[in-house]
Every structure is written in C-alpha cells, then in structure tokens.
Structure prediction request, 270 residues.
Amino acid sequence: MADASPKSTKVSGVFSTLEIKKVGAGTTQRRTKAKQYWLVNELDGDQAEIQPINENLVPIGKKRVIRLEDLLERFEPEPEFYVKTGRASPEAWQELKERQAGGEVEISLEGFDLTGNPEDVEKSARSSFGLGLTYLKRGNREKAEDIFRRLAEVEADFVPAHKHMFNDFGMSLRKQSLLDLALKHYLRALKLAGDDENLLHNIARAYFEKKDLPMAISALEKSLSLNPNLSASRKFLRYIKRAGAAEPAAGGPGGGSGAGPTKGPIVIDI
Prediction:
C-alpha cells in the first residue's frame, strides 16, 4: 500500500543552489550565477548527505554531510528533475563509468535506480511529494505548494497505472485544505485514467469543499452515468442537494481514507 505521509518518507532527490562562477580570463573575466545540482539523501540525526552532480545525474564531486535544517532553508528542491528525465542517457552512463574507473569521485546513487521504468518514476514522484509535506509540516507553505504544483504539471513518462498515485496526492492535499492543488492532481489522474466513476466522486468532493456546488453536482452526475450503482456517489449527490449551500460537515458526508493501493479501482475519498 502506498503511503506519502511525512513520517514514512525521508528527504531525498535532486536539489539546487545558485553558485557564483568565473567566466573568461584576464580583462574579460566576469562573474555569473549558475545553477548547481545536488543529489540528496536524508540521514539519521537530522542530517543530510549531499553530492554535487551535473545535469546527467553524474556525480562531479565528493559527498559531504550538512544539517537537514540547512538543506531545507538554503537549497531549492527540483521535483521535476528525476521524474522528468526518467533515465540517464548512454552518454551519461559512459561519463559515469569513466569517472568511476579513473577514481575521480566516489560513485553512489542510493535510492536512484535510473532505469526509467514506471516504478522508478513513481518512487521519485512520491519522494518529491513527501518533501512537499515536510515543508508543509515545517511551516514553509510557499515551497510546499510550489512542489505540489510542479508535480501536477510535470511532463514525464507517466502511464495509466499512475492514476492511483495522483489520486493519493489529491486525497492528501484535500485533507490539508489545499483544494485547488488537490483538483490539479485529481484531474491529472483523470487524464491518465480516462473516465473513472470513483475518481469523479473524489473530484466532486474537492469541488464541494470549495463550495462550488454546480461543479460538484456535475462530477457526481457523470460518476453515476458511468456507474449508476455507485452508492457513495448516489448518497453524496443526495447529501449535496439537501445541504444546499450549507457548510460541509467535518469530514464531509462520510469518513476519510488513507493512501490507496496501486492496482485495482481508484480509492474513493469519502
């Protein structure tokens, strides 16, 4: 069972800093800002191991350990980096092999299986989502929302099975009252899944909490057109029509649910 909660996800992934670098020589030399990427893995004891890498995910320097707090404050997360690139190019692997053979750097990419298969793409996306939850827990709402938005919009090698992941993200964000972001993830799941009655039910739930009753009703009616026997949507639609513009009850018309399985039907957020 998938779980994107912060207590089960350590910080890992690609971060960046802006470094001042010298360009040119002599009288034409100038300073410029360049983005430096870092491969990051959280360690025990509120520390993080960082290693500079290039755009091909090839290490270009030695590892060092810094405080986790410093990482979260000074480094910028790059949630699209691995999700988007998916796999290292043949040129990158050749560079990695040559550097390792030459003993230039210590090569270790724990937690980053660069095969580009759907499982690895999902692992990286869930790790980035967990980082967003970590920022949210620490009170950095701006960085958290930026990660959630970028994950919803990133162009990557997602497959229909990833609808479960985006549905999980949507449910988690709805429970954080980040309703617009929840809808972004639900709609990304819908794009992958095609019409899905359970997912449409979840979309209705988010619209309902936004007090957009027409859109909630529309989503529920579409859900029921796909499956007239879906009792959750039938009860929810009846609940909305009775409630009118009243405030949503705590937890809505039913109880909540956690992250769902990665196979089978979409989990209903009720």
